[in-house]
Amino acid sequence: MEKEEKKIVNTGEEDEMEIYGYNRCHWKLVLVAIGVLCTGGFLLLLLYWMPEWRVRATCKRTTLKDCEVVLLRTTDEFRIWFCAKIRIVRSLGDNPLQNPQSIEDKVSNGHSGHSCESPAEENRNDPNKYSPIRYFTHHSVMYFWNDAVQSFDFKKGLDESTSCSSIHNEHSKGLTKEVHDYRKVFYGVNEIAVKVPSIFKLLIKEVLNPFYIFQLFSVILWITDEYYYYALAIVIMSVISIVSSLYTIRKQYIMLHDMVAAHSIVRVSVSRANQEIEEILSTDLVPGDIMVIPSNGTIMPCDAVLVSGTCIVNESMLTGESVPVTKTNLPNPAEDPKAMGDEIYSPEVHKRHTLFCGTNVIQTRFYTGERVKAIVVRTGFSTSKGQLVRSILYPKPTDFKLYRDAYMFLLFLVLVAGVGFLYTVVNSILNEVPAHIIIIESLDIITITVPPALPAAMTAGIVYAQRRLKKIGIFCISPQRINICGQLNLVCFDKTGTLTEDGLDLWGIQRVENARFLFPEERACNESLVKSQFVACMATCHSLTKIEGVLSGDPLDLKMFEAIGWILEEATEEETALHNRIMPTVVRPPKQLLPESKPATNQEMELFELSASYEIGIVRQFPFSSALQRMCVVARVLGEKRMDAFMKGAPEVIASLCKQETVPVDFETILEDYTKQGFRVIALAHRKLESKLSWHKVQNINRDAIESNMDFMGLIIMQNKLKQETPAVLEDLHKANIRTVMVTGDNMLTAISVARDCGMILPQDKVIIAEALPPKDGRVARINWHYADTLTKCTNSSPAINSQDIPIKLVHESLEDLQLTKYHFAMNGKSFAVILEHFQDLVPKLVLHGTVFARMAPDQKTQLVEALQNVDYYVGMCGDGANDCGALKKAHGGISLSELEASVASPFTSRTPSISCVPNLIREGRAALITSFCVFKFMALYSIIQYFSVTLLYSILSNLGDFQFLFIDLAIILVVVFTMSLNPAWKELVAQRPPSGLISGQLLCSVLSQIITCLGFQTIGFIWVKQQPWYEPWTTQSDACNLSAATNTSSSQHENETLHDEHNIKNYENTTVFFISSFQYLIVAIVFSKGKPFRQPCYRNVLFVISVIVIYIFTLFIMLYPVESIDRVLELVCVPYEWRITILIIIIINAIVSLLVENILLDMILWKVVFSRDKQGEYRLTIPQPPQEPLDRWRGCVLSSLFGCRKKIPKAKYMHLAQELLVDPEWPPKPRTTTEAKDPTQENGSYPIITVT
Fold first, then answer.
1. pTM of the entire predicted model
2. Of 159, 181, 494, 644, which is the active-site residue?
């Protein structure tokens, strides 16, 4: 057997997997078939559940090149196995983007593409031309064999390793029919097919769930043991559960199918290699096809890059932002000598030139006689929409401690069942019980210990929480995350549209003349400025468009354009000729703003005065890029020969692209003054372009050639007001010890100002700005540390650093310490990128106190969430969806404030665009989490109580009766478990956090104490009944009650029925144990149904209260006042009234002990002395306390030693790090110091700190 090294597919991707090759082995298949027959099919089920075992049991290892089956394993922490069958397809070649020689020859010989036979026909005619290509399909993606790497890989389209120049030169001519058919072999049908499985297929998949198989095994066992009614009840419950589950799953498939299929198949026009336009179905598109975009718009069926024309697109499906986006054609590097010809095209980098699948092209703009064309780069599940649908169809498992602990606990129950199994076997053998009864009863103990209703009970709390969230306008597509939201201890917020109002108001403008700032002006709409370059820039430098006569676009652009009062017109084709075929968008001022006389004094003004009809045509648009933080347009005044370039964007970026002599010397001071006050500042710049630049050259010029040597024109100051509810919500989160972090694309000082205004940074707190610089000119990367308040105050006579300015080092982790926290880190996206690359060791320290992250690109927001998760924070992310999709998906709890289709990317979506949904979500998450704990504890106690009841009765060769099991499981357990989950969330967030797992001291002590209590009282009842003077082994003639004559007569009528009690159900021990255990279930239900601080008190849960009271009254009634018919059904025997009162006393004492142990001993004494945890449930940095009394100190020491909880080391990395930083004399960094990156030659060297003097 030939072995080979481990291969990896999707290297570096999120779905990276190891791959192994296998061939079928006949002798192994025979052995497996024998094993299946011997185990009654159970081995087949086991192999169905375990793909790895299935492949290894039936196949032998071989090389990937020769394999028939592949075994895949994910490389993430879940290490999930998959298997796939190798299939064969015949093709002329093995690279879809390189045309085979036979096609090249046919095209060069002048064969028409349309006269070519189909590949299938040609294959029949000449099979030798076609070579077999091996592939397999996994999660809707096809992986083909690649000889070059000796492994399987996923065939990319034009979105990888294709240069921008080759897109224009090689791929812009269109495909012949032969090449199209050849590529379709590899890329398949361009369709995001969400197949709705048939009910039969879903049913088989659902029924083969291990849970239902276990139930089937239990039902067969109970029927064998003549527990017909109980078995029938479980079957009915299982059928209802399966039908409900099938309905829900199928409904979700249908919804997703309808969402995807709404516009998946449309007719599209394609430009072929012979310039003919052919109309085909969108399902036939392949990468390289040239799609003609219709002028009236369309829904994009694929990802395509624009090569000519412009499109207005609504990308709300992807970004959550319903603002129309302008897409321009990809610049051709060959026509621009300054451009880099080898730049690789990437849909993410060149997204402003890419039309994404599923987005709505509203309208197109084109030049006279030219079509708007786009080259298809990705199809099917490879597209952006396809990847989104795949993430929904194949979600990553939720890694949460609760679920891991639940499996551990089930394993523990199985071990307990194993002990019971052995005890039953040994006890039965000693009592000479027949073999078939030993088998049935010993297996029965396993079905009792592992409760079949556990999975349904665990999900009940989540389902109820989901309903409550829906009522307050929060929708959830990933219900399992509700529990995780109960653990959130840090929330990241986007700023604009999340913390602040979505819209901006124009506060004023501040123009620059002769490199000096003029006084701020409130209005830009006046006659003196109407023909200035400043207003011309405001009028043209935007991405606004008219849709059905209404001006629409980015809210900032809208406010800016409305402030000058100009008119935007998209010209007709006839008018376009006036502008020499430039892009037909024209802006002009209203007539009342135009001056009556022409001032001829100012030379600059004269450039605008050549035409009586003053209007500006927008020739070329370079849309806003969040990576570049700017946008630019090329415009021309009607009648002018030379064009103008206008640019707007982030002031720091714009100033760096302007001639330094045009930027005022006090630029940084003025900018800082505005940003500190929380204003949004935008800078404008202008440049006259060379006369040699024609409109055609402008269409293909690279933006870098335009965006240089600009003249700085001034600032636009926009006011972004805080939302009314923001400060109150953040205060609630701070009181609950939940950290808040701002992640924004805005200016850093503006962000710091908003953070102070909303209470994220307290007035007395210091803000340390980390300014990281990459390596340059032989110098290593370094970080300069500044204080936000002293950023520009470093003069020659800088004062000595006051010792009081150095922050106090305390951890912001408890309410008492909140006022003492003195420092926060702030940084921009560039610094964050440098720190991630060159200062990996500092990242945890910085995110521990990092509060403001400004100028962050979308991918950097995701990286920040990952960095916070790496130090064990449970991270929430709240954003408006525009640039936050990645972070929303990555966070433990992402909540989108956008109702649009981008909410698909976010686990939670709020109907109201307000951050008040965040505390609501956390409250409901905490309530659901505590409910899960309560239910799990209750179900565990239910199993153990029933297990012990049966074990006690097995010792006398008895058992619980069929209807006794039925009464306990249906009338008590099922009713209680589904009503105890109904407690609503507590009305406010508290500082305490619920534990994250079941395996914790608090929960284990609670469960163990109740187990000991219940078992103790059951044992007392079981032994004590035998000590009674009236006790004797029960027979049908037994008469411990001295029943009346009437009753005796009635009994004698039924004597024949009960004469033969094969299972020995009727006896005094059974009746005693049944009544005590029935009440014990209700006692633990009440004990575990805790309310405050995470849920409303259980008395507010009306259904639970009514259910418990009704069951209590009924059980008490049949115990104290036996009804013969009920006793007969439940197979109870009559015991003296005094013994009934004794049972009642045992139950009352049991209830008192259970309540005292849980609420007094555990909650009030033990946790305060032993498990001294802070209000978050984590290790707390305690403030020194006054000396304890000797007795208290002794008691604390003894208990701490007993439980081994002394000097508990925090589990969370961020808490451990906080401890370390307390004793680090060099942290936080001193103001006006620099930290340099480690020298590459010194691996273990520390960061050198340099003080700047």
1. 0.71
2. 494
